[in-house]
Amino acid sequence: MPLWKIKRPILITCPKAITPCLKDEVAALGLPLRSESAAFVETEGTLTDTIALNLSLRTGQHVLFLLKEFQARDGDELYGALRRLPWEDYLPRKGYFSVTSSVDNPTIRDSRFANLRCKDAVADRIRQKTGARPDSGPSRARTVLHLFWKADLCRIYLDTSGEPLSRRGYRKIPWKAPMQETLAAAVVLATGWDGQGAFVNPMCGSGTLAVEAALFALERAPGLLRNNFGFMHLAGFDPAAYQEIRRVARRASHRSLPGRVIASDRDPDAVAAARKNAATAGLEELIEFVVCDFGDTPVPEGGGVVVLNPEYGQRLGDLKRLEAVYAGLGDFFKRSCQGYRGYIFTGNLDLAKRIGLRTRRRIPFFNGSIECRLLEYELYPGSRKNPEDLPPGALPESPQRHSKP
Ligand SMILES: C[S@@+](CC[C@H](N)C(=O)[O-])C[C@H]1O[C@@H](n2cnc3c(N)ncnc32)[C@H](O)[C@@H]1O
């Protein structure tokens, strides 16, 4: 059967702990759930399905199409099994490919050795069948293979994304401590913002949260911002069919926002970077940018969500300064954000205690290896210091508002 018609398991990797969002996204595309873990969701489909996944997913990193599962005890067995696969049918003529891997096998001390055996098997097979040896190297801009090898179990995948999907291509100016795009999208989805009210993002830095929020509200497939994916470098790729899928995705996207997206930062250079990134994403006219302290961010009537990603503090001096900043966040929520849901994304829960409001939910995330939380606060209208004034289920202000943690 031709490669593009075969149905196979498809593994979609994601930053740790965001599988709940990714699962929903995969289900929305009508694809089944086969399995999941903290850092992947497994579905099933054809290579054509991987085009839709690569274009649409907000929270996936790599879309891996399973070619073969087999047993290999060492490098020679790996080479032998891979050499038997019809690589000449998978890679385009005069192709270039690279290999990435995740290896945990007792005979392999350096995963680069496994990658090399894999490269040799593929290139030797193609040379034997066609007379020409394909080029290979580290660039992920063309065909990418991914080898998973744990104990004796091997799986070889086509990485249909190539570069990770978090590289949307709009963040030309990353600014300081930017959030990865897929993580920012997962934070937007986790807030449950429906796109109707306002999405207010003080401390916007390079604007990742605001851009992802606007893309979500426009129902714009983030992959439309990219013009290169791994699947484009596979034999049998049909550019016309791909352009048609892109056209359909573009047509499904709105031109104007139903609600408002407001991004602010006190640093004019951060706002300039965010504005430029938004322009690259085609959103400059749709996001309202303001240079101001977070406490002065305009918060429109009508409700919505307010999301902040303050620094977490690496040095002691920073921590002292940040204690005051975090206390100020609580004041800002109480003073200016009534009727909204407030969210703080932080990797420092001690600092978060300074906010002094009781959290309604604490959603776990990882920013790289740093364990983080998205803290949710329901900011009811009016002053509600007396618990008896609260609507059912609401939480009163914490009494230790200004106490030390
Ligand atoms: C961790 S960064 C945010 C990164 C952002 N999520 C991104 O993806 O680029 C924190 C931002 O808060 C801003 N900031 C710090 N203190 C502030 C304050 N008092 N008012 C407004 N912005 C502030 C900094 O300029 C910085 O851009």
Give a structural overview:
This protein has about 400 residues and is α/β, with parallel strands linked by helices. About 30% of the residues lie in helices and about 25% in strands. The protein is built from 11 helices and 15 strands. The strands form 2 sheets. The chain has an 8-stranded mixed β-sheet with strand order 2-3-1-4-8-7-5-6. Strands 11-10-9-12-13-15-14 form a 7-stranded mixed β-sheet, covered by helices on one side. α2 packs parallel to α8 and α6 crosses α7. The longest helix is centred in the last third of the chain and has 21 residues. It is elongated and about 75 Å long. The C terminus is likely disordered. Bound molecules: S-adenosylmethionine. The site of S-adenosylmethionine has 21 residues, from α7.
